[in-house]
């Protein structure tokens, strides 16, 4: 059912308030965003992605969002004089008394009501035809998705394709993870701690005599990613340093994701090294997502780590920091509907695994990276739709 207008109540950021409006089969000509004054920024973020689509946005402040009767009367004033299928209520993201008031107004006036299922990319109709499911056919871009959550992409995302000559190297690194985990952690540390000329601290005799570390350095040197200068390592440019410092794992994961995308049309735009800034921050502080993509209009975030987490028995550091960071990013950019995956080349403590499980963060650790394609294929699948009667 296509209606000329949609009405949404904006509380916290919910992309589901905008998804039906961006669907070619449901797109309205105008939208009413009802919001309490303290939530105006969230409504403005949604407005910023709707207006460029040619949708006229009417921003209305709720006079008393905690009064069912006040909200009902305010909504009825919008419906007054409108046809029976002219305005539909999108209850997605609505909250408390405001949701009840809007529902009562539309239900009493026999007007269409729906919400977007929080796990499936579809509409659930509340009236008429209660319980009917309608798949959403529109696909949102990462730029619009982040803007709707109060963030803007900074620089252009990095190219997700891995240089062909390096694929053999990354296969070696994944295949030898048990043997190479410790020397990789040390190389990761040196690649992180460099001076202004991208040179590391001196490697002491223990590191210079460590055969597995030296062999690992030689492999990266064969691809001109690092060179020896006496007892120091030097990186020819920042890109090479970042690649040695874990960028190779980001490349590995994003390459397999792009390959999977060719067979799964639900996977939308993919970005690696995605920089973004929060629009409501006083200072434009840049943040970065290792790998991010949309599948079924849900944000999927992948953090790739090659540094060692087991250097301490303290369950609150440093592996827990990575988990807390991921959980915080999820709350900022996608809420409970966003999915998060931590890919770690290094082992994790049992306490970190338990904490990840408690937070709903998926893990792919050590040898499990061999099967990253199978994990990603299963991870992006939505719940199956219930059969229609």
Describe the 3D structure.
The protein is α/β, with parallel strands linked by helices and 389 residues long. The chain folds into two domains: 5-138, 3-Layer(aba) Sandwich (Rossmann fold), CATH 3.40.50; 140-389, Trna Endonuclease, Chain: A, domain 1 (3-Layer(aba) Sandwich). It has twelve helices and 15 strands. The chain has a seven-stranded mixed beta sheet with strand order 3-2-1-4-5-6-7, with helices on both faces. It has a six-stranded mixed beta sheet with strand order 8-11-12-13-14-15, with helices on both faces. Helix 1 (40-50) packs antiparallel against helix 4 (142-148), helix 6 packs across helix 8 (211-222) and helix 6 (177-192) crosses helix 9 (238-261). The model is unreliable at 311-317 and 384-389 (pLDDT under 50).
Strand-residue fraction? 15-25%
Structural class: alpha/beta
Radius of gyration: 25 Å
Query: What is the string of helix and strand elements?
Result: EEHEHEHEEEHEHHHHEEHEEEHEHEH
Intertermini distance: 19 Å
Shape: elongated
Domains, number: 2
The strand line-up of the biggest sheet is: 3-2-1-4-5-6-7
CATH architecture of the largest domain: 3-Layer(aba) Sandwich
């Amino acid at each position: 059912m296509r209606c000329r207008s949609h009405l949404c109540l904006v509380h916290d950021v919910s992309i589901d308030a905008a998804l039906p409006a961006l669907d070619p089969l449901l797109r309205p000509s105008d939208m009413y965003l009802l919001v309490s004054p303290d939530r105006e920024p969230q409504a403005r973020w949604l407005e910023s992605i709707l207006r460029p689509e040619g949708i006229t946005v009417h921003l209305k402040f709720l006079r008393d969002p905690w009064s069912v009767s006040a909200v009902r009367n305010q909504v009825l004033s919008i419906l007054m004089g409108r046809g029976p299928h002219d305005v539909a209520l999108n209850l997605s993201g609505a909250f408390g008394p405001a949701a009840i008031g809007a529902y009562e107004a539309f239900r009493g006036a026999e007007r269409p009501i729906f919400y977007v299922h929080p796990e499936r990319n579809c509409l659930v109709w509340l009236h008429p035809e209660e319980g009917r499911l309608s798949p959403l056919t529109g696909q949102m871009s990462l730029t619009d998705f982040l803007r709707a959550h109060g963030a803007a992409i900074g620089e252009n995302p990095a190219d997700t394709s891995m240089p062909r000559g390096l694929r053999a190297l990354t296969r070696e690194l994944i295949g030898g993870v048990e043997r190479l985990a410790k020397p990789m952690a040390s190389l990761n540390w040196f690649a992180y701690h460099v001076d202004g000329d991208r040179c590391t601290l001196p490697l002491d005799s223990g590191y210079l005599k460590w055969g597995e570390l030296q062999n690992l350095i030689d492999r990266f040197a064969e691809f001109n990613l690092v060179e020896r200068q006496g007892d120091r390592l030097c990186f020819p440019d920042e890109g090479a340093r970042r690649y040695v410092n874990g960028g190779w794992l980001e490349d590995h994961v994003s390459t397999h994701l792009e390959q999977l995308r060719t067979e799964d049309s639900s996977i939308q735009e993919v970005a690696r090294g995605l920089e973004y800034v929060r629009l409501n921050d006083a200072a434009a502080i840049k943040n970065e997502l290792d790998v991010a993509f949309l599948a079924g209009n849900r944000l999927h975030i992948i953090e790739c780590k090659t540094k060692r987490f087991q250097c301490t028995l303290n369950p609150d550091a440093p592996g827990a920091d990575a988990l807390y960071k991921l959980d915080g990013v999820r709350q900022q950019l996608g809420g409970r509907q966003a999915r998060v995956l931590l890919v770690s080349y290094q082992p994790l403590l049992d306490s970190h695994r338990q904490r990840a499980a408690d937070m709903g963060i998926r893990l792919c650790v050590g040898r499990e990276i061999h099967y990253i394609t199978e994990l990603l294929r299963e991870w992006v699948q939505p719940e199956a739709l219930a059969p229609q009667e």
